[in-house]
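Table S2 (continued). Query chain:
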Amino acid sequence: MNDFILTTDILIMLLPLLLLQLGLAIYCLVKIHSEGVQNLNKLAWSLICIFINLIGPITFMIVGRKREYR
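Corresponding output:
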């Protein structure tokens, strides 16, 4: 019984981080497929954003986004 409470507490504490990770990955996937990418192809950036947690989407936002200069 005590192990179940400990596991539940850990899940509750990690929930904001999991939601942030999921939201950031979904946001990046939408950006990748709607606006395009700069230096890799769409499939590669999609896989990076899905499988490399938190670092992948952040890297995409810094390096991979297609920039339009006016």
